[in-house]
Write a structure and sequence with these properties.
Number of helices: 11
Structural class: mainly alpha
Order of helices and strands: HHHHHHHHHHH
Number of strands: 0
Distance between the termini: 22 Å
Radius of gyration: 18 Å
Strand content: under 5%
Shape: globular
Largest sheet: none
């Protein structure tokens, strides 16, 4: 167990701390990207609309952190063959996968803090509500991480990474109602939007802050289901790669 924890911390250090120290633009890039959405939301929607920008910014940052993990794992697999070294070693694969994910979330923590402070300032939510929102974000992170791990194992060339990430960004971060209130959509479109996992998280966070409606309860149930599914997917990916050792 001690070796497994060491492996996890080692991957966290490589993907998080070292990258952040070497790339001074990583933190500003992660923070400024969702802030640009808030800027336009403020221009067209006024001060009241910023609360949706803050909620959407939190989800957007989580999505981006999992995209970093997808890029890293695909690169380790296709470029420097680091994953092959992991497979050939006694290192537990779940520690390798989770370590990469945690490493990629390290340098978005300050950005998460900025948007959480902004959300607290605008909505005056309680500490308990803040903790619930963090739990929802973690559930979303686990599921998206599992999907990104699965996609990364299918990528054969590095040049295939960026178009996949661009497509996922639009599907998960732009079209779903995370930067704007879902209540402006007809009910059938509100339900259709739940096809994107980020939507269920947005509905749940909205319910935590403003009270649960039918649609936000549905979002909460789906978010929990996605969290459990994410754990199962990570387990099977680890098992599938583990079979390569044999």
């Amino acid at each position: 167990m001690k070796n497994k924890i060491k492996t996890l911390l080692y991957m966290l250090h490589i993907n998080g701390n070292i990258y952040l120290l070497r790339n001074k633009f990583a933190l500003p890039a992660v923070t400024l990207s969702p802030l640009s959405f808030i800027f336009f939301i403020y221009i067209f929607g006024g001060v009241k609309a910023i609360q949706y920008g803050a909620m959407g910014g939190l989800i957007y940052i989580i999505v981006n952190s999992t995209f970093f993990a997808l890029s890293d794992i695909a690169s380790y697999k296709t470029n420097n063959l680091f994953q092959d070294m992991i497979i050939a070693s006694p290192i537990p694969l779940w520690a390798y996968l989770i370590g990469i994910g945690l490493g990629d979330i390290v340098y978005v923590i300050p950005a998460i803090a900025v948007f959480m402070i902004l959300l607290v300032y605008i909505t005056s939510i309680s500490l308990f509500q803040i903790l619930l929102i963090i739990v929802v974000l973690l559930m979303l992170w686990v599921f998206l991480l599992s999907i990104c791990y699965h996609i990364a194992q299918k990528i054969e060339k590095n040049k295939d990474i960026w178009p996949i990430l661009s497509l996922l960004s639009v599907v998960l971060s732009i079209f779903p109602p995370i930067f704007y209130p879902y209540t402006i959509l007809p009910f059938n479109l509100q339900m259709l939007a739940l096809l994107a996992p980020t939507t269920s998280a947005a509905y749940t966070i909205h319910g935590i802050i403003y009270g649960f409606s039918f649609i936000s309860v549905v979002g909460m149930i789906i978010t929990f289901f996605l969290f459990v599914s994410g754990i199962v997917i990570i387990y099977f990916i680890s098992f599938k790669i583990y079979r390569l050792k044999k």
